[in-house]
Amino acid sequence: MCPFPSDLITDILCRLPVKTLLRFKCVSKPWGSLIDDSDFVKIHLHQSLKTSTNIKLFLDNCVENDNEAYAVDFDSLCNLVQFPRPFTAEANKYQSRIFGSCNGLLAVYHRQEGIALWNPSTRKYHYLPTLGDDITMDHDILPGCGYDKNTILGFGYDVSNSDYKVVKMFRSKTQNCFKVMIYSLKANSWRRIKDCPYDIFTNYNDGAYVNGSLHWVGDEIDEFFGGKVIFALNLGTEEYFEVPEGDISFKKKKCGGDCTIFGYMNAGVLGGYLCVSHWYSTCSIEDHVNLWVMKEYGVKETWTELLHLSRDEWLTNIFHTRAIAYSRSGEKILLDDGGGCQPAWFNLGNETGETLCILGVPQCQRFSTIIYVESLVSVY
Q1: Rounded to 5°, angle at Cα 190 from 188 and 191
Q2: What is the DSSP string of 80-103?
Q3: In this structure, are residues 180 and 192 in contact, taking their beta carbons and an 8 Å threshold?
Q4: What SMART domains does this protein map onto (predicted)?
Q5: How many CA atoms lie within 13 A of 360 on its CB side?
Q6: Distance (Å, rounded) from C-alpha 217 to C-alpha 243?
Q7: Could you tell me if 229 and 217 are in contact, meaning their C-beta atoms sit under 8 angstroms apart?
Q8: The pTM is what?
């Protein structure tokens, strides 16, 4: 007879990291069955999210001839782990990139090879089926930086159907629209949904998963302004909707001229909240970004300005600035510029920046960063 009640064993095991649990599967058949059980996978994930434990910082290598990716414990920036990516650099000249993170799964895009869902904690990955020629032949390809700028992507979890979904939008050659395909992990298949009713500013505009929906910035069709609308796609109903914009006033540093350009750069997630970056320029050499966070989802009055940035030596590629995460103390925010240079910490108190340095990671390489939680979630 087991000396401990089964619920106590479950309560203990759900607090352990994935690497330990994978080893413990060999202890006995009952333990192996328990750790593989879908209910335990959910309990373990819930425990990690509730306590903010098992959180990793993923470093996506932006160097074309390097197949390695890295991850560290986010709080300590220690315990470096190195592992191969699902798509190898030797396959062709294009590199892969991460475009989404949800419940321990990473969504990886390779312009020629396709899309994979990857759990780096279990080292398992799943290649999505290819799309039909009727969609891909009408795709208006605009190459850039190893990927197609006219392909818009997003990844998240459909709570109502307990399903992980990938969204892929294509700018049509023949119609003034983005055709939209959605992949269901549960069905392991793609299907077409309603065309996106907005035009999308395409640079670094991957969907931000918040409150069961994916969010982007864009414009009304035929009214391109570089990002004036925040909109979303509900993964359960698969309907589009606009997110209310608050009465946003933004600071301007004196630069000898008025603001000539203004728009949303991207939508993101910070501390579980929807956030947007505003970019504006007061002259040809002075650029600024404001970061706003929606403290209560869907309530426009809760938009709060969090920080203001201008081009500096520690953040040169300001056009693609994204907020990644708060530090555990909440005093700093990790910022990423899409791989142009190293990620950096921004101190909210004194408004200074500091380049992120991680022991063991080649400093000569460029990385794009993303947060994920270690989990046992299956990619099948």
Answers
A1: 135
A2: -EEEE-SS-GGGSSPPPEEEEEET
A3: yes
A4: FBOX
A5: 12
A6: 10
A7: yes
A8: 0.90
Place of tokens 């190898």: 88
Q: Please say whether the beta carbons of 200 and 167 come within 8 A.
A: no
Short-list 134, 141, 175, 182, CA closest to 158: 182
pLDDT tens-digit readout, 270-307: 999 999 887 665 555 566 778 899 999 999 999 998 88
Distance CA 107, CA 119 (A): 9
Q: Is 47 helix (H, G, I), strand (E, B) or coil?
A: helix
Q: How far apart are CA 196 and CA 194, in angstroms?
A: 6
- Are the C-beta atoms of 246 and 300 separated by less than 8 Å? yes
Q: Is residue 16 part of a domain?
A: yes
Per the domain annotation, does 286 fall within a domain?
A: no
Q: Helix (H, G, I), strand (E, B), or coil: what is residue 244?
A: coil
Nearest CA among 289, 248, 293, 247 for reference residue 269 = 293
Comparing C-alpha atoms, which of 82, 168, 158 is closest to residue 123? 82
CA angle 323, 264, 105 (to 5 degrees): 40
- Alpha-carbon distance 199 to 171, whole Å? 9
Confirm if 313 and 257 have CB atoms less than 8 A apart.
no
Domain of 49 in residue numbering reads as: 1-53
Q: Is the separation of the CB atoms in 133 and 80 below 8 Å?
A: no
In a domain, 244, yes or no: no
Q: What are phi and psi of 190, to 5 degrees?
A: -100, 155
For 143, list phi and psi in degrees, rounded to 5. -65, 155
Domain count of the chain?
1
Residue 333 CA, chain-centre distance (Å), reads: 16
C-beta neighbour count of 26 within 10 angstroms: 9
Does any domain span residue 150?
no
Token pair, residue 370, equals 């993303």
Phi, psi of 194 (to 5 degrees): -60, 145
Distance, in Å, from the CA atom of 192 to the CA atom of 178, rounded to the nearest integer, reads 11
N- to C-terminal Cα separation, the chain: 35
Give the range among 85-94, 173-182, 284-293, 357-366 with minimum mean pLDDT.
85-94
Residue 144 in this model has a pLDDT that exceeds 90: no
**Would the pLDDT of 151 be above 60?**
yes
Tally of CA atoms within 13 A in the half-sphere of 74 that contains its CB: 23
